[in-house]
Amino acid sequence: MVEIIFLIIAGIFMTAAIGIGFLIIFGNFFIVMLQPVAERINSYLLRFNLRKVNPGYIKILEKYFYYYKNLTPAYQRRFEQRVRVFITSKKFISKDMETVTEEMKVLIAASAIQLTFGLSLFTLTHFIKIIVHPDSYHYSPRSKVKFQGHVTG
Description:
By secondary structure, the protein is mainly alpha-helical. It has 5 helices and 4 strands; from the N terminus they run ααααβαβββ. A two-stranded parallel ribbon has the order 1-2. Strands 3-4 form a two-stranded antiparallel sheet.
């Protein structure tokens, strides 16, 4: 009886080990394969969920964003919606300052959208949070070089 219980427990552990090994080997593959699916879902959400864009966003774009001002009215509406989706899909974190202002969020989002504007997959889903620093900074205490910004994924 003890031998049967031991075999059952050993079988469970082997199954778990095989499952973990499978995840380690194929986990990255599934992440890479599912990212386009997430981008497509975001694209469809944008297409069928055209909510009104915050008028403050439009004022900021008109005041500071030259690229936006040169778009046709139809492309401006698309750009505005994409900025809205980008802002709502990311977590903006302030570092060494009180808060990330709406103006900062809009200008960061507009810069990202400008890079992806001709693409149907535009939300950059691999970036979940955006950390905003008030000035140049050292990436690590040992670093002698000051960063103006950096990207990690």
